[in-house]
Amino acid sequence: MEKKKRLEEVDGRLQQHLVLLLAIVLGFLIMDPFDMSPVGGHDFRPVKNDIAPYDQVMESWPADNLSRLGLGNLEHVDKVFGPESLEFDPLGNGPYTGMADGRIVKWAGEGRGWVTFALVSRDWSEKLCMTGKDSTTYKQWKMEALCGRPLGLRFDKSSGNLYIADAYYGLMVVGPDGGLATPLSTHMGGEPILFANDLDIHSNGSIFFTDTSQKYNRVNHFFIMLEGEASGRLLRYDPPTKSTHIVLDGLAFPNGVQLSKDESFLLFTETTNCRLMKLWLKGEKKGKVELVANLPGFPDNIRINEQGQFWVAIDCCRTKAQEILTNNPWMRSVYFRLPFQMRYLARIMGMKMYSVISLFDEQGKILDVLEDKEGVVMKLVSEVREANGMLWIGTVAHNHIATLPYP
């Protein structure tokens, strides 16, 4: 009996030591002393997000059971690199797109293909910046601040000037003949604009554009969402005074921008909070911000069609596991300090990247939803542009565009 008691005591002490050892190992991993985790080397301080409950959003979200977006065609494979925004000039020529190597290029037809139209950096060089298919990999990231990363594009229909939101060089403009773009707004309140993202042009000449974060730049954009930080802003540049003003601040990854047809309101997306928002510019509600729609995934750009309806590009989709992390910042602080690559941590949460595009009317009613659940055509979608009976679909992370006849 006494021998059995001693064995039990030894076994108990062994279990205590194992628990202590596991606690020490877990604590060591959480401290991440060798910066082996996805957030290693960063001042990572997660906060709670203002995001609608997963079940509430998914119960009312219409599904595209035919996966119609997957019927689209891949175009210009390995000819364009990270074409986020697609734009046509006032004469209907194009498309034009900004690329991951810092260039803005124009489709000049089958004979000439894609030609360089504009650059955002006077330090741009073919040797340093033009890395082909590698442009959309991490290999290019260390060069982005030098080469530039043009994101949102808009033509001014009256002047033919092309306005550019570059992630590193801020708000810029280039004339109808292209060339080196001129900076318009690079600082706000004495501090550099860290992450210009998208823009739209008001008929009075003012330009609304998003500054996604005051903490992280484009290379580190994942940390904005993982942390949930809300230092983003909607800004307005006024050409007559050459001044920039804060329209809204405290936004969680403000991204796409689109004025309504009558310019009574402006829509913008908050990527981290998975929602489409409205800012009233006229009428009794002037200055008020309203929720238009909670979304099943992470929205990027918004573009209007000729009927005054709005296409929203969404990278899908939220999951139940991801919602638990979203609502518990301390869990994120632990989880993303584990020494595993982000793609593996995302899989554990059930994240599977595919694309959804949605069409909204002015009241926020969903008119259509197109999905590519298998990621056949688009695993990551940045913008949808409706033109000439076709949807033109851009992607910030891949080397092609997609087209789909519509309706």
UniProtKB/TrEMBL annotation:
GO terms for molecular function: hydrolase activity. The keyword rRNA-binding does not apply. It holds the Pfam family Str_synth. Keywords: Glycoprotein, Signal, Vacuole. Its main location: other. It comes from the Eukaryota. GO terms for cellular component: endomembrane system; vacuole. InterPro entries: 6-blade_b-propeller_TolB-like (IPR011042), Strictosidine_synth_cons-reg (IPR018119). The keyword Signal applies. Residues 197-284 form the Strictosidine synthase conserved region domain. It is found in: Vacuole. Belongs to the strictosidine synthase family. This is Strictosidine synthase conserved region domain-containing protein. It comes from Lactuca saligna (Willowleaf lettuce). The lineage of its organism: Eukaryota, Viridiplantae, Streptophyta, Embryophyta, Tracheophyta.
